[in-house]
Amino acid sequence: MVNTTFSAAVWPEDTFPEESRRYRQCALCTQKSRVIWGEGNPRASILIILDNPGAREDKEGNEYVCATRQTLQQALHQVNLSADDVYLTYLLKCRPLRRYDKEQARAFSKPFLIRQIHAMQPKFIVCLGDVVVQTMFDDKDTCVKDLRGAWHNLLGYRCIVSYHPLAVRRRPNLLRLFIEDWNMLAQQR
User: Per the structure, how many domains does the chain have?
Assistant: First the structure.
């Protein structure tokens, strides 16, 4: 997915709502955890959900765009969606820095995400990756490959499902399907 004319950009992080302070009670959060509520345009019509935020800074503390966001931004670029068209948020609001009880953290985090979705009222939701799909659709046996390529209803919003951007990077054969899913959404805008 190399495109020499594309340059990934750092999306602005959203300001924290008051309830983000309560999120610090998540077992995943530590003193050093950075809670990231979301990034991009909070008034965008497209809400993208990933499992958790990736690294934001290199070892020297310089801000950079992680591989997940690079792949995602390039796909958006390919289907003529701009950074202003989307808001990116996470099931888990902080990056895991240690081992944790995944089921407990997801169960704790999901109500925060649901309230965030209802507060934002997006036109479309995009669930990326099996973790998000299984959690949001309350079905541990479902996976992206079974749901992608079709429209779904999630919490009363139109929703599509696609692969996690890191899965696309690791398995380039998924790129065509990933772009197909984004094209399906771009055509409905």
Answer: 1
